[in-house]
UniProtKB/TrEMBL annotation, chains A, B:
Enzyme Commission identifier(s): 2.1.1.130
UniProt domain Tetrapyrrole methylase: residue ranges: 4-208
Protein name: Precorrin-2 C(20)-methyltransferase
One GO-annotated biological process of the protein: cobalamin biosynthetic process
Species lineage: Bacteria, Pseudomonadati, Pseudomonadota, Alphaproteobacteria, Hyphomicrobiales
Gene assigned in the entry: cobI
Keyword NAD: no
Pfam families named among the record's database cross-references: TP_methylase
First and last residue of the signal peptide: none
Length: 246, 246
């Protein structure tokens, strides 16, 4: 009997935003794998930390931050073979995923290598996008809005056309693109209906109207939400407290 | 002391996809409100049913199915005043929301009426969109894809331009628009990278490539996911089992 592979969505950061299902599978898995940077802690492991036990085998999958300079395919080939050895030995393996495993996540690289060989289940998680809307206190999208999720590294012209075509927009992976994106939104006249969230659901969460964001670069885990016609919602936001996790 | 208002995301249907936080708040709330159709059971209540207790006061918010014929604003005005009476009496009120409260949900209508008057917290939930990708076994979106969520009632031309502009698409509220949408996707040459999911995460869940969907109308709780360049993923899907919840 080979083991079963799980991709566990852990939610945006608050350990209480794990699902009951992810919690059950996490605490029952003999082997727990997670992506980790080459230096510093693994964010996925941090989310799961309150529930991990000393008798679980932990398998960090080290993915260098500047992965474009590295042979990323080889990293996932090697990680897949490591997990395959545990699965072949009959151990279930839970791969920890920040947010949701299939929403811009790296779990797909392991899934495509292993799901044909082993029983595999993906457990969806709360996305940071939903958590950001909750923190801002305004809808992501409603009724017949088109909602577009736009990665921050896209060039200005692509981003502009996608924002123009949607009723609501979530810009993810803002990070070092922050100043450029804010300038674009300002030029489009949409600053008044844009909100900013960083490190959502963590104790160090920050929430504010986009107009209040300081000039310095945003952290990688930051997001801008635009809700057109959302000026009323944004005015409400600016009356509420601007910091602190929920 | 007035009570606190919660908007609780319950996830897509499987009661085990509640978050630990939603579970804690749900089981501690003296008053539990939920949207309900004019006839038949409330889906939100069904998700929460395993955790409800007889000593909790239940407040159905009856929203007629053909709400466009009814004065919907008055329904939410009246519901808000009902909840306000419980909040004024010092009781916390948990409003149950299918999926995520702010992802195309009706909780916004209560939030906008009550959040200025009472302490309010929105607890994000697992969206049916993430659950559908997990059930299909393929990514929603990856890397620098633009992901667009497109409501099924939109007209063909709007839908076509939004699908063309995105790397990945989730079409929600498919329901009675099913045949028209499938014809559009076929005309765009995208059927081979489209998957279909209905009643995701429930025992009666159905998952299949779009090409295998029968002619009859889809239920309201159905979704089509398009992942361009996803033909390899779709081929994998057609090799896996096509039914049964995870």
């Amino acid at each position: 009997m080979t083991g079963k592979l799980y991709g566990l969505g852990l939610g945006p950061g608050d350990p209480e935003l794990l699902t009951l299902k992810a919690h059950r599978i996490l605490t029952g898995a003999p082997v727990v794998a997670y992506p980790a940077p080459d230096t510093g802690p693994s964010f996925a492991r941090q989310i799961a930390a309150p529930y991990l036990r000393a008798d679980q085998l932990e398998v960090p999958i080290v993915v260098p931050m500047r992965v474009e300079r590295f042979p990323a395919q080889e990293i996932y080939d090697e990680a897949a073979e490591t997990l395959a050895r545990h699965l072949d030995a009959g151990s279930d393996v839970a791969v920890l995923c920040e947010g949701d495993p299939f929403f811009f996540g790296s779990f797909m690289y392991l899934f495509e290598r292993l799901s044909g060989r082993y029983e595999t289940e993906v457990v969806p998680g709360v996305s940071s996008m939903m958590a950001a809307a909750a923190a801002l206190g305004r809808p992501l999208a409603a009724r017949n809005d088109v909602l577009s999720i736009v990665p921050g590294p896209l060039d200005d012209e692509t981003m502009r056309t996608r924002i123009e075509a949607a009723g609501a927009v979530a810009i993810i992976k803002v990070g070092r693109h922050s100043a450029r994106i804010r300038a674009l939104i300002e030029a489009m006249g949409l600053t008044a209906c844009a909100g900013y969230v960083e490190r959502v659901s963590l104790p160090e969460q920050r929430v504010m109207p986009l107009s209040a964001v300081p000039e310095s670069a945003a952290p990688y885990f930051s997001m801008i939400l635009i809700y057109k016609g959302g000026e009323g919602w944004n005015a409400a936001l600016s009356r509420t407290t601007m910091d602190g996790a929920s």
